[in-house]
Amino acid sequence: MPTAFVHTCVRARDIDASLRFYELLGFELRGRLNFESAYNVYLGLPGGGDTLELTVNVGRTEPYDLGDGYNHLALTVENLDGLLEQLAAAGIQPETPPYAPGGREEVGRICFVADPDGYRIELIDGIFPTPQDPPHPSIGA
Prior knowledge:
Elements: E1 8-11, H1 15-24, E2 28-34, E3 38-44, E4 52-57, E5 73-77, H2 80-89, E6 110-114, E7 120-125
Parallel strand pairs: 1-4, 5-7
Antiparallel strand pairs: 2-3, 3-4, 6-7
C-alpha cells in the first residue's frame, strides 16, 4: 500500500500575519477549505506538495497552548543569512544566531524562528544529511 506524507497542520489566530510569515519562508498559498466554525489554508513550497495546513478557528482570540510535545518544523534554505536579513526587515529575529549543532560543521548551520502563533521553525542552511550517530548513551549497550 503506497503512502505519502501529505501535510502538517498548525492552528493560526491571525491568518494574515501567518501568511506573511510563511511567505517570507518561501511558502505559496495553494487553497482553502471552509467549515462552519473554522477554515483551513493550504500552503506549499515551490515544486512541492501542499505540505502546510493552517487551521483558523473563527473568533479565537486567545493564544493556543502549544503543549510540550510539539517542538518544530524544519526547512532547508539556500541562503540562511539572506533569509535572516529578509526576516529581520519584517521584524522577525532568530532565537539565537545560526550555529552548527554540537559544533559539527558537516551538519551545517541552523537557527530557529517562531511564527506569529509561537510555532518554532528550524532553518537549515543547505542540505541536511540525516545524522548517523550511534544510539544515545542513555539507551545502554
